[in-house]
Amino acid sequence: MENVDESSILKPGTRIKPQVDAETAKNILLKTYGIKVLEICELNSYDDKNFLVFADKNIKNPNINFCADGYVLKILNSFDSKKIAFIEGQTALSLYLNNQKIVCPRQLQDINGKYYSFENENIIRLYDFIPGKILGDVPSCSNLFYHAGVFLGKMDSTLKNFNHDGYKNHKTLWMLSSVPHLEEFVNVVIDEEKRGMVEDIIDLFKQKVLNHIDEFPKQIIHGDFNEQNVLVNKNAASGDYKVVGVIDYGDTQYSCLLFEIAIALTYMMLVTGDIETGGYFLAGYKMVRLIPENEMNLLRICVCARLCQSLVLGLYTHQFDQSNQYLLTTQAAGWNLLRDLYTKTDKEVCHIWNETADEYLTQSYK
Fold it and tell me: Which residues neighbour 77 within 8 Å (Cβ) at sequence distance 6 or greater?
């Protein structure tokens, strides 16, 4: 079982979100990036502050070309802003993926040629905005989840050749390896049946997964391939949406590929609330990377563990920021999916996924 540095684990509810409004963001962009803002709006975020910005064409910064689609200003929370090595790792990863032609936000340099700087205690970064919709905002279909699997498989294959020292000691509460820490917060779940289910899943995850963690291949992973982070575009001819890119590298980490797949599976199934959806995603992922049998047999409990993280930490953090409804995004569908998976065996869930994948792959159109 992995050792976790307690000092790197943030307690939910700690007030770390930047106190920055749109007017302050405008001033930062002008002073730091030489960008005069024409329009600005705040985007959803858990602990950070993100702004979508449209700029005047006359940018006073030789390091930035005008982007008609806009820019995203990211102001990092005060806790993560202390993790300089990790920030540098994210920067290197962003540049690496762009060089490998993986569609993701391109990190831009400020007027001093730096990829990040400080505004008080918060790190600030700027990215080109990538046009498109997010997966969670478009109609769901089997092809969409299949292509999401293909995309993640390709990205994982690309990241196999990437490493950075900034990821060596990086740990957060949202990593699947941190699931045992949920025991500190599980009392926020008032319903006894739900709380018992979460406690049982934590125990099973520790026994079946964490006690054998050294058996699974590891590399840098995205760590949060969810419906809010996956970009899609519409095919004009067919009318179908296809995955074209991914955003948000705040949860990138050195971890098990098993966890990468489980996290993505969790959020793809949450979009529909159906276990079968996972089969479409796995059909796509396996087109790029085969999943060993020992990993397949643990996916159900890993997905359950991720659902518990999302549900418990969302509830806990919402106590301290009740105006942020984004924290409760997965609650309704999450408990239903968790119960459905919890009441089935590993064999039953794998059968559903494999049968769904096989049926999909026999179709002539993908």
Answer: 16, 17, 18, 47, 48, 122
Q: Are 306 and 266 in contact (CB under 8 A)?
A: yes
- Contact 283/147 with Cβ under 8 angstroms? no
Task: Record the tokens describing residue 97, joined without a space.
Answer: 């993926």
d(CA 147, CA 258): 19
Read off the tokens for 166.
Answer: 């900034």
Token representation of residue 82 = 């202390």
Q: Structure tokens of 31?
A: 């002073």
The residue type found at 213 is I
On the CB side of 170, CA atoms within 13 Å amount to: 29
pTM: 0.90
Tell me the C-alpha distance between 73 and 69, whole Å: 13
Q: What angle do CA 350, 354, 357 make, to 5 degrees?
A: 140
Query: H-helix or E-strand containing 306?
Result: helix 299-318
pLDDT digits (tens, 9 = 90+) for 169-223: 899 999 999 999 999 999 999 999 999 999 999 999 999 999 999 999 999 999 9
C-alpha 171: how far from chain center? 15
Q: Residue 298 gets which letter from DSSP?
A: T
> In whole angstroms, what is the distance from residue 260 CA to residue 243 CA?
17
